[in-house]
Hints:
Four copies of one chain form a homotetramer. Chain A is built from seven helices and 15 strands. Chain A has helices spanning about 40-45, 105-110, 130-140, 160-170, 200-205, 230, 305-320, and strands spanning about 5, 10-15, 20-25, 65, 70, 70-75, 80-85, 145-155, 175-185, 210-215, 250, 255, 260-265, 275-280, 285-290. In chain A, the strands form five sheets. Chain A has a five-stranded antiparallel sheet, covered by helices on one side. In chain A, a hairpin with a 4-residue loop joins β14 (about 275-280) and β15 (about 285-290). In chain A, α1 (about 40-45) crosses α7 and α5 packs antiparallel against α7 (about 305-320). The model of chain A has no long low-confidence stretch (mean pLDDT about 95). The interface between A and B is large, with 105 and 105 residues.
Amino acid sequence: MNTFGNHFRISIFGESHGKWVGVTIDGCPAGIPLLESDLLPDLERRKAGAAGTTPRKEDDLPIFVSGIFNDKTTGAPLTIVFENNNIRSADYDAIKNTPRPGHADFVLRQKFNGFNDHRGGGHSSGRLTVALVAAGVVARKILEGISINAVLTEAGGSNDIETAISEAVKNQDSIGGIVSCTVKGLPVGIGEPFFNSLESVISHAVFSIPAVKGIEFGSGFAAARMHGSVHNDAIINEHGATGTNNAGGINGGISNGNDVCFRIAVKPASSTPKEQQTWNNATRSVEAFTVKGRHDLCIALRVPVVLEAVTAIALADLRMAQMR
Amino acid sequence: MNTFGNHFRISIFGESHGKWVGVTIDGCPAGIPLLESDLLPDLERRKAGAAGTTPRKEDDLPIFVSGIFNDKTTGAPLTIVFENNNIRSADYDAIKNTPRPGHADFVLRQKFNGFNDHRGGGHSSGRLTVALVAAGVVARKILEGISINAVLTEAGGSNDIETAISEAVKNQDSIGGIVSCTVKGLPVGIGEPFFNSLESVISHAVFSIPAVKGIEFGSGFAAARMHGSVHNDAIINEHGATGTNNAGGINGGISNGNDVCFRIAVKPASSTPKEQQTWNNATRSVEAFTVKGRHDLCIALRVPVVLEAVTAIALADLRMAQMR
Amino acid sequence: MNTFGNHFRISIFGESHGKWVGVTIDGCPAGIPLLESDLLPDLERRKAGAAGTTPRKEDDLPIFVSGIFNDKTTGAPLTIVFENNNIRSADYDAIKNTPRPGHADFVLRQKFNGFNDHRGGGHSSGRLTVALVAAGVVARKILEGISINAVLTEAGGSNDIETAISEAVKNQDSIGGIVSCTVKGLPVGIGEPFFNSLESVISHAVFSIPAVKGIEFGSGFAAARMHGSVHNDAIINEHGATGTNNAGGINGGISNGNDVCFRIAVKPASSTPKEQQTWNNATRSVEAFTVKGRHDLCIALRVPVVLEAVTAIALADLRMAQMR
Amino acid sequence: MNTFGNHFRISIFGESHGKWVGVTIDGCPAGIPLLESDLLPDLERRKAGAAGTTPRKEDDLPIFVSGIFNDKTTGAPLTIVFENNNIRSADYDAIKNTPRPGHADFVLRQKFNGFNDHRGGGHSSGRLTVALVAAGVVARKILEGISINAVLTEAGGSNDIETAISEAVKNQDSIGGIVSCTVKGLPVGIGEPFFNSLESVISHAVFSIPAVKGIEFGSGFAAARMHGSVHNDAIINEHGATGTNNAGGINGGISNGNDVCFRIAVKPASSTPKEQQTWNNATRSVEAFTVKGRHDLCIALRVPVVLEAVTAIALADLRMAQMR
């Protein structure tokens, strides 16, 4: 379903080339000051334009449809929409017969019996992350005293990211990256046994970001190679502070008061300018294929703000569960 | 909450040192043949006993409480319980004042204001995975034609697992491991946009297994270092078969008909025999600490059958969503 | 929450005097033909204008925001909005201090700490039923072969409804009514034990219609005065047809293949032109009070189409649950 | 599904003639004192034995399976089971071919393709209400300061209930009844727009009680015959107290601080000793039929304690929603 969360619940709608994309937030407490302009900084961070990102630019001006009165939330559903005003649908006609490798064209056509809106990935497009970012701004408002910070720490296998992007532009081949996220100030006790552990809920949210293929908390995969006596974080005071943080701030699926740390793997954009092979359903053969349309060479560049947003959404939901 | 799934929905209950642990499965179709003995092989795989696993042994005999009539499911809630008949609770008295590093003792006490059953980890104990394994057997019954296979591919950083275990026993220090899982036969189209992607739902389930700290699908973290032209899996026939499988059988969060592959990182058991440091709330100082009780040196050994179970549960839920 | 249903799930948003009101339908199967004009007949039935209904008239033209491609549903969330283009908010300033009797003014102010949009009832306004009617049209599309028919059978205590309305207009005092609903063609087996009985789910949906204060199925309250030998409906063929229908087509919470029949009680509109008493928070005394604004004298007139809509929504959800 | 509630969530399992029936409560706060003996008074009220109720008697001794430690709730799932120790299944063999009128035999067989446990109504039996009563006791514990009181006000059409029962015994024909429920002390603001109105959630819960066929809040069906100026309850102080209570303590689906009042219609037990007609699938004709087994002549006698229980469960869930 297109809804995430039980207490701070978001529902997204819209397609890459449709009229609007949007999000409805249900369960947002009343009385939170919120202006459309509050959303602009994060929307700007997400926006295309830097080297390595798609030349498609949307205005990305949020429109509040409901749930706001006198510049404050009302407790009623808060719906925010964005116009899609920069659409070149003709670019996508070819994919009806030649599903793009790495993309969801083939699976969406199968799953929805060919009725899905295939233009630009339709409802599965990265375009929808504009709605996630908007909801993330609202989520942060109910996470007072908690900071969420994500950074691209590696692109194309290098931590000199600027150079990596230049190489990708030169090679005309997309590259992936690693994004690290740190949450500071999260109180002890966030995360719900047995199935809504902090890792479960964050990873559930995070894998809704297109192109994410892995997540690890604290020492993550490296932990599999440690001894218990090394991996265990000694508790050093009554508030649960630990000397090391191999657990990434989470024990038994519950925040322990230390920084919550995790890293995600972002695959290279499937829409690479390089020639590829795919099945052509018209000619019934494998054929060379070149992606058309405007795309990011390094989508990982745009992921940090989206990662912060979905993390905020996940934490807002869990925190409201805890506040009962 | 202690419930997972929307269509094939499981709810678990019980504590490590309580009377019973159990699971209720709601949404299981009627007419599926099911005997208590059908559960034994997987329960046996999970059971303690091998070198590196805890000497605590339970009989682990499943008792069907409801939902079965004439050896078939009825469509009513199917409840299965297991007796806890091998309990030495005195072992755990110390942890009231000295929360064990790496364990959830500290966070549970905070979260539940000290009312949690602290004995053996209480409701957050690995003991609860016996209920997951039972539910997994039922889930597999509604995944006809689909195989799920998990193997421990690495322990203590080595793929010679037997030697790694011996070393751990010799060192008296716990070790972690990597478990790989492959799902064969999953039809195209499993996974629900936007938030219930196949990765989202599997990872949500997987992170409910105690000690899991990372997950990656297909090439996972390695994908972050590939070029798009290499990472993209060329589609080579009309059924969506791909030449490579860097995507791990998933595009846009939806199964593409190829093998679904993922790997998880299991941290070393927190209960290592090695001396550690922790805060003592009675003396109000950091003190040396040695874990008592009976524990696994390499819990990763017991994870594959649990991983298969939660994967089956996640897939059963998504498949029933798809069958609408 | 502002969401109804687990499989065919609707979420509504908007306020009486906000920009738009709307609904998002999640879980709607792909491939259903749907034009904006398909919604017009039911929207027209709901619209104001007849004697006894409010002079406020909206154009009520539905705008499809998402989920439709080439005039068919895509399987993605289907969002429909309506502009509010006939707003006179000044009418409502008085209610800040003098909560209108029978209305939700007082409780909404308390519940949302004064942050709710109080104009015209805000999110709790009958205006929102336009979104329910829109969703009802879509729900009916997936209830092929099933008819839902609701009629106003009594107004102001009389079954001569036209006369009752004339009297209400003459008396300038609002009146209530009884609406009966009959569902034909519902297959055997709709309704989910134990908590999602057909009665439970229908009544849950129905009591979201403003002004409904009672519901009874089949013989309903009269059944409480019958003997079992009279009330029981004899089964007269292998398809479960019954000679009488005191059960209203439902046994054990599950449809039995006969007509599903129920009746609801609609209270008189709280906004009656007659003078009333209420607490004035400014003067801190009970004072005479006259409602301003434009309102229905017999809201029951507008209920049948809304009742059909929510019934369709409830049945669509249960039917999709059953189709698993 | 067999789960009710989002915050205080109960799941029931078991069959009339199975091993145990039980309930799991998820979301119960930690630290609530709870003894098995706390449940006995309400269980006793529900128990059979009075004139007009079935001679089947169960011990109905609750067994706490999980979620309790040192006589207090732990915050983990609280599972309570009851043994079925007085079963005469042979009584029910006949119903395989001759579905009992008024019962769910026919619909359950259709819905579950004949795999349902048909003995004594299986999972749809009134026996399951023992689990509801148990959960109700727990729910009341988190509704401090709130009283819920239900009384049988009418049986067989008369308010001289004792005489009505004697007549039913003499006639050997079952009778129905009316049960009234009053909730005192409920704070203002309980009930969640738009779909989880207080009426919606209470009625959803109430219609899960077998044999309930109608519900009305406040003046209910009588409201349909009142004028607005009469029906409206004048607000007489700043706390929202009203002079009359036609609204039954609910405006706009939200509690207004006055008593919440509603009435339900209970049909006569379908298992009446009187001869009836039903379809015989073996002989393929309509035949005379007499119910065997032990049954209540006036099940309405046993409904008040169950009604209080489900009301408490519904209110506990809504109150916890409100406490966020």
